[in-house]
Design goal:
Helices cover 27% and strands 23% of the residues. The chain is of the alpha/beta class and 503 residues long. The chain is globular and about 70 Å long. Bound molecules: flavin-adenine dinucleotide (FAD).
Length: 503
Amino acid sequence: MREAFDVVVVGKGNAALCAALAARDQGASVAMLEAASEKEGGGNSRFAGGVMRFAYQSVDDLKRVTDLTDAEVAGSDFGTNSTDEFFDDLFRLSSFRSDPVLTEMLVTQSLDIMVWLRSKGVRFVPNFGRQSALVNGKRKFFGRLPIEASGGGAGLVQSLDKAACAVGVKVFYSTRAKRLIQDGDRVIGVHASAGGKPVEFRAKAVVLACGGFEANPEMRARYLGPGWELAKVRGTRFNQGDGIKMALDIGAAPYGNWSGCHATGWERNAPEFGDVNVGDQFQKHSYIFGILVNANGKRFVDEGADFHSFTYAKYGGEVLKQPGQFAWQVFDSKVTKLLRSEYRIRMMTKVSANTLEDLAPKLEGVDPKAFLETVRAFNAAVRADVPFEHTIKDGRGTVGIDPPKSNWAQALDTPPFDAYATTCGITFTFGGLRIDPSNGQVLDVTLAPIPGLFCAGEMVGGLFYFNYPSGTGLVSGALFGRLAGTGAAGPAAQTSQSRYAGA
Ligand SMILES: Cc1cc2nc3c(=O)[nH]c(=O)nc-3n(C[C@H](O)[C@H](O)[C@H](O)COP(=O)(O)OP(=O)(O)OC[C@H]3O[C@@H](n4cnc5c(N)ncnc54)[C@H](O)[C@@H]3O)c2cc1C
């Protein structure tokens, strides 16, 4: 069987939908190939919490993205995420490795892409629940990301889906792209398998937006390193690295942090892959208010190094390195009210006790004696002279213990004590393909563009190294999706003239 379109987009997550809509805006006929069934489609985007990190200078910028009432404006301190702050966060977290051109695009065009998403029907709302607290009668936002998609990632995908359907994008579900078709160097389509039957999709250009290799244990062990096959997958099981493999097979340039990924603390007994009904709620991001202990009863990270937004994506990897690949998060009742909503779901491994001595043997797999020694040393090291203030980095740290806890340190001394078992949940992989930043076209290993081939989303390498500021994946997916879709429908798809500026 053979189908023909101007543009074929592989995948149907956020980046793919943005590429499809942008290509339709250029008048191209567009098909989307989704490996999953309609019920399971939508990729990691559908599992996402939906927080969106973009540059905003003032409430006026936020009003371009969401409707805010006068009362909300008067009663809130939204802070800022200036372009300087956004740049600083991205470069600091990536140890200054992020591609400067891609980063500049992401930072400087992030507000514009939010406005564009809104124009396509996505609704955004203030993230009162997870990113703000009442301080002196005012809602104070922290972490520089006050806005989320209404209905989370699932709501975002649903809105984009509706927009794509309205403009006649044709979606082929249960259709897994397998190999790119070339005429000479030019990509002219994709071989796919639809319900076990081979189908050939011919196109003037192909956009690969089919995720990284996070759901593929063999590739995880190969590229991320030994032990990564043991991680749980936070999202879709369909991101098997197919797009990356197809592109490398025809000489595309690998780019970015191939041994790096985004991975968080995740319910220890969660299923192998994400569950859309639970979404991101297996995560446990309030570790900043407690301590993390491993099987040896020892702490192993600075839980309070920064707001969770700036540490959570690398601490999953730290948990994976511990014996047995698990860690318990331990809290006392002083912080119970500060714990995020994910600490109140039913499907979690939680133990409680009224004394630390009673809690210790309940921490399955942990040396109880060593745990009690760790807590005693931690409690003695807390700088009780510094006031605790959870909406800022309060500097209430520890003295004389290793690792230190730099902020939000409080003695574990007020029962009941609660502990939550976590392991490592991988979100997405950082390594990907090298693109021409002017149009999203994939470059080959000599840095010449591959005619007819574009990519977007998690597949774009060069943005994230070692770590990641929360809320950046959906914004970058939309931005580079729009870029690739516009490029694929435009004249650049037909030529191999453009050259990567930095080549
Ligand atoms: C639990 C969780 C919470 C998150 N929370 C946030 C958040 O709050 N904010 C944020 O910005 N980011 C968040 N992220 C990250 C964000 O979801 C990703 O960065 C983003 O969704 C990636 O979008 P994408 O379009 O590149 O890939 P995906 O959305 O994963 O889409 C890839 C698509 O390709 C399809 N596919 C794969 N292989 C093939 C093939 N061979 N043929 C055809 N189709 C194929 C898949 O089925 C899927 O539909 C979260 C992720 C997870 C897992």
